Amino acid sequence: MKKLIVGGCSFTFEPWNWPTYVAREIGCGLKNTGMGSMGNGLISKRLIYEIEQHLKIMSPQDIVVGVMWSGIDRNEFYVNKNDLDENLDGWVENPTNVANQKKWLITNSHWKFKKSRMWYEYYHTDVGSMIKTIENVLRLQWYLEQKGIKYFMTTYMDIFQKNLKGYKIIEHEEVNYLYNLIDQSKFLEVNGCYEWLLENYKEKGFPNNKSNVWGTHPSKEGHLEFATKVIIPHIKKHILNE
User: Fold this and answer.
1) Is the predicted pLDDT of residue 211 greater than 50, yes or no?
2) CA-based, 20 to 30 A from 125: which of 61, 93, 168, 203?
3) What is the dihedral sign for C-alpha 197, 201, 206, 208?
């Protein structure tokens, strides 16, 4: 294992997030494709593009991929240069890039700019969002299997247990058959990073300011704990066969 290539949202992209500790412990290089507020479509797209670039200079056996999937309701659109929307005060790159062109406009349900409001008012559904997320998981899994690249996956929160009118969305007939295609053996044996820390490392796992949205994000200590107790043992056992 010479290179760890990772993807995710704000639970992944900072230099003090879990990928840094994993790469340091394993003793390999790191390429982090993550970005704050990024949805699962762009997580998948960015990873496939970056892996393709690395395969030009190294073999599949030298690469391990790690993914921390994001919220199912986050979306992205490919836009024309003259059709860009507002930026978000510079705190996140939007539109952002996949192949070095800033053409992907990302949306979140609580954002107020025009295209984001229109999407969630007229087109978004929870079932449709879950279908897209599972399709992105499957696409990446099938791609990695076809390339012969070892990988692990997890979620920033327990995205697959989202409820809709009293039942889990994954039980919906248009979702369940896709969900059953996911290779669950490639996922860490936790419900999600947030849930694991809440149960096992609540006191130091999160910032002290719980009134801020960032209070739901792991602290530096939380990332280190999750990397040390969950991710690294999984890699050593299931990927490096130690």
Assistant:
1) no
2) 93
3) positive
